[in-house]
Structure to design on (251 residues):
């Protein structure tokens, strides 16, 4: 069973009261300060590995996903009754920066045939797929005299007749719309992103629910059961790996 935090990083229960953890609270403020100063998630993670404290009790290593969870947690502003660790202004500034920074945009399999044939509508030269900004992927004309740039969304996952549009937060199966809860949607998207890979319950829990989830890995079984029922015949594409977890496989 995966280890899960009972309360978010940065807090502790002492004397029956929720209060900031001295070292972890300072770490939260450090992470926000470093990000606002321009540091990358990876650089912050490396810094936290060296300076501590630990995010996960089983390892001193930090990774960029842990840093991301800290930066996304609105409780640090005092939400939901938690003592504030950062100002609302700093939290908002971090969210603005996260949306504005360029990020690598992995090439979906269904986009590869398009990439080979994409041409500029102005001069006819080849379009080169670049990086993502503000949630959209930029395609730039390789003709230096033209320089035309267009932004498109390729936030679509597809396999076995299942199509997930992450931007619209919609799912269709064989052309029919399927109504999923937020976590069911996230779980199905994670399966498609890892098609053909055996995933342990712990890995699914850490990536879909993250370490701050107040439960155990068996909650995944419940969500998979509900998800399969909504997928009807396509539910069999989610294979059970006994003693381990699950695998999405269209073979």
């Amino acid at each position: 069973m995966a280890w899960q935090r009972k309360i978010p990083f940065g807090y502790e229960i002492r004397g029956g009261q929720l209060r900031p953890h001295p070292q972890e609270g300072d770490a939260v403020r450090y992470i926000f300060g470093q990000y606002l100063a321009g540091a990358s998630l990876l650089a912050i993670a490396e810094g936290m590995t060296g300076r501590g404290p630990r995010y996960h009790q089983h390892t001193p290593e930090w990774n960029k996903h842990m840093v991301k969870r800290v930066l996304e947690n609105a409780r640090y502003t005092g939400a939901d009754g938690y003592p504030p660790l950062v100002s609302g202004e700093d939290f908002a500034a971090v969210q603005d920066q996260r949306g504005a920074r360029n990020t690598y945009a992995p090439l979906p399999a269904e986009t590869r045939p398009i990439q080979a044939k994409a041409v500029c509508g102005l001069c006819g030269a080849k379009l080169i797929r670049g990086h993502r900004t503000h949630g959209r992927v930029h395609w730039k004309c390789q003709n230096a005299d033209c320089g035309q740039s267009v932004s498109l969304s390729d936030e679509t996952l597809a396999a076995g007749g299942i199509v997930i549009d992450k931007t619209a937060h919609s799912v269709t199966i064989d052309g029919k719309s399927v109504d999923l809860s937020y976590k069911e949607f996230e779980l199905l998207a994670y399966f498609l992103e890892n098609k053909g890979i055996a995933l342990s319950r712990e890995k699914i829990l850490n990536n879909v629910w993250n370490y701050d989830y107040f439960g155990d890995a068996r909650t995944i079984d419940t969500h998979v059961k509900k998800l399969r029922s909504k997928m009807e015949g396509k539910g069999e594409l989610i294979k059970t790996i006994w003693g381990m977890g699950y695998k999405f496989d269209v073979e």
